[in-house]
Amino acid sequence: MSTALDPAAPWRAELVTTLVNRGVLSDPAWREAFATVPREVFVPRFTRRLRGKNEQGDQLVHYDHATGGGTAEFLAAAYSDDSLVTRFNATGTATSSSSQPSLMAIMLEALDIQPGNTVLEIGTGTGYQAALLTHRLGDDAVTTIEVNPEIAADAEQALARAGYHPSVVCGNGADGVPVRAPFDRIIATCGVLRIPPAWITQTKPGGKILANVSFGLITLTVTAEGTATGQFDTGSIGFMRLHDGPTDPTPPLRDIVAMARGEGATRRTTTRLQLDYPLFHPVMDFLTALILPGVHRTELLIDPPTHVLVDPASGSWARAHADGADVVVTEHGPRILWDELANVITEWINLGQPDVSDYSLTIDATGTHHLCHPDSGWTRALP
Ligand SMILES: C[S@@+](CC[C@H](N)C(=O)[O-])C[C@H]1O[C@@H](n2cnc3c(N)ncnc32)[C@H](O)[C@@H]1O
Q1: What three-state secondary structure class fits 346?
Q2: Are residue 159 and residue 214 in the same domain, yes or no?
C-alpha cells in the first residue's frame, strides 16, 4: 500500500522503527509483517493507559474509530507500543486487548518459526497477532482459538477485512484444537500457571510451546515421550489469564481481599522477609504465583500499611503489619500463608537470589511441573 492510499502507513513504519530500536525486532520476515498488517483494523475501539499522566496516577484514554478513525491522534494511539484494551467486564476488569507490540515481537521471534510450520495461537483477542502469523505463514498454516464468541466473531471479521483467513475457532484454548493438531508451534497470549496437557499432546515432537507461565515467558520444547522442557526467558510479563468460560469468573481483587478483614488469631513474629521483599518484586511475584498457586497477595494502603495474603480455595488468609522490629500477623484458616511465603523467599535467598531467567521448567509425562535452578541442581515439583 502506498502512503497516499493508506494514511496509516507512516505510523506503521514508525512502529517498526521503534521495535527495531528497542532491540526486539530483527528478523526481516517479522519486520515485513509488522510493516504491512494494519493494526487499526483490529482495534476499532480501545482504551490506552497513559502512565502517570495525571495527579491521581495513570490516565485512561478511550479511542473510537467511528469518531476519530483517520485522525493522527487515533492512528498514533493505534500504532503506539502499548497494549490496547478492547473489552472490560461488568466490574471494569480488562478482559481482552491487543498486546504490546514489543512483547508480540519478542514472542514471535522467540517462536523460531521455520518455513512450512503450522501454528496454534491461544487467545485470538483482536486478531492482530493472528494476522501477523497468517501474513508470514499463510491461511492454512494458522489456527487461533478464542473462548469468547463475540470476540472470536469480531476478530474473524477484522481478519477478513485485512485479507487474512486463518482458522478461527471459538472454544477453550486449554483443550487446544484437536482436529487441526499436531502443530509445530503453540503460542499462548493469555497467561497460565500450568501448561494444559493438550498443548503438549498437540505439539509435534521437537515442536515448541511459547507461553507466559506465572510472570515468566518460556519456550518449551516437546519430546516424543510427551515431556516438555525449557528455560524461562524473562520475568514481569503478566498476560490476562486463561479462563474457562466466555468471561473471567475471578472476582475483583478488592472482593477477594475483603476476606482478610475478618476476625483471626493474632501473633507476633520477627520474620519480616515478606515485608522486605514486597509486591512487584519480579522474582517474588513469579515464584509465589508458581509455588503458591491461587494465593492472592496485595498491600492495603491503610495506617499501618498492611500486607495481605488470601487463598480463597481453602478460606485461609493472613494480614500483617510491621510494629517496630516485629511483625504482627493476624491469620485464619488451615493454611499458614505467612509462613508459606517466608519459605518461598528463604529458598530463593539460599539459591543466591536467582533471576527469573535462571530457572527452567520441565513437565514430565504425567503432567507434573518441575521448577528447576540448573546452576545449583535445585528442583521442586509444583503442586
Ligand atoms: C491479551 S488477549 C489476546 C491478544 C491477541 N492475541 C491479539 O493479538 O489481540 C487474551 C485473550 O485470551 C482470551 N482467552 C482467555 N481465556 C481463554 C481460553 N481459555 N481460551 C481461549 N482464549 C482465551 C481472552 O478472551 C482474550 O481475548
Answers
A1: helix
A2: yes
Q: Is 2 a catalytic residue?
A: no
- Are the C-beta atoms of residues 308 and 331 closer than 8 Å to each other? no
Helix axes 28-36, 128-137, angle to 10 degrees: 130
Asked whether residue 94 falls in the same domain as residue 214, the answer is: yes
The verdict on the CB of residue 126 being under 6 Å from ligand 1 is yes
Q: Which of 204, 234, 264 is the last residue of a domain?
A: 234
Q: Among 47, 190, 244, which is best to mutate for testing ligand 1, by the most ligand atoms less than 8 A from CB?
A: 190
Instruction: Give the closest residue to 299 by CA, choosing from 313, 284, 291.
Output: 284
Range of the domain at 290: 253-350
Number of domains in the chain: 2
- Amino acid residing at 48: R
Would you give per-residue pLDDT tens digits along the chain (383 residues)?
444 578 899 999 999 999 999 999 999 999 999 999 999 999 999 999 887 666 666 788 899 988 877 788 999 999 999 999 999 887 777 888 999 999 999 999 999 999 999 999 999 999 999 999 999 999 999 999 999 999 999 999 999 999 999 999 999 999 999 999 999 999 999 999 999 999 999 999 999 999 999 889 999 999 999 999 999 997 667 777 887 777 666 777 778 888 888 889 999 988 877 777 766 788 988 999 999 998 988 888 888 889 999 998 899 999 999 998 899 999 999 999 999 999 999 999 999 999 999 999 999 999 999 999 999 999 999 99
Same domain, 51 and 157: yes
The finding on whether 128 has its CB within 6 A of some atom of ligand 1 is yes
Among 187, 206, 234, the domain-final residue is 234
Exposure of 377 in the CB half-sphere (CA atoms within 13 A): 0
**Ligand 1 pocket member 172 (CB < 6 A):** yes
Q: Which of 96, 98, 99, 214 is catalytic?
A: 99
Determine the residue of 96, 132, 142 to mutate for testing ligand 1's pocket, defined as the one with the most ligand atoms within 8 A of the Cβ atom.
Answer: 96
Q: Do 123 and 189 fall within a single domain?
A: yes
Same domain, 168 and 309: no
Residues 266 and 243: their CA atoms lie apart, in Å, by 36
Contact 120, 196 (CB under 8 A): no
